[in-house]
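Duplicate of earlier report; Type IV pilin input re-posted below.
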Amino acid sequence: MMKFRENEEAVSPVIGVILMVAITVILAAVIAAFVFGMTGNVQTTKTVSMQAKLDGGAIVITVNGGSDLPTLQEITVTHAGVKPADADFTLPDDDHLDVDNTNDGVINGTFSVGDVISFEPADGTSGRLLIVGKWSDGAEQIILDRTF
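Output:
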């Protein structure tokens, strides 16, 4: 009777390497799809510069410019956790800026380089000044955060 040689290996080493490479490629594709899919909703940072200083009992805000200034629609001013009343603001004389009569602390209009906005805080000048901008595309961002 003839004896046959028994081969106990079911898969050759080449097939094993091919399967490992295929699994690695598929895993990398899944991870890349997940990572790049997560970054699709990130908004770009807006560029607008404003500065604030104390002038006696008033806080004076000056618009310095920025590439996104033309699309800035409104700013919300908060000082020491309180939004100043509309009557407290002094705006430029040429009527391109206006206070929002329904929301305290909101100034809207077409902002220009060199605009000067001032107000006298009711509780003194010390505290945190926060200016948040809102743009025509709906984006909102902090423009200035300063403590006096």
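Residues 49-147 form a domain with the Immunoglobulin-like fold (CATH 2.60.40).

Merging into the original ticket.
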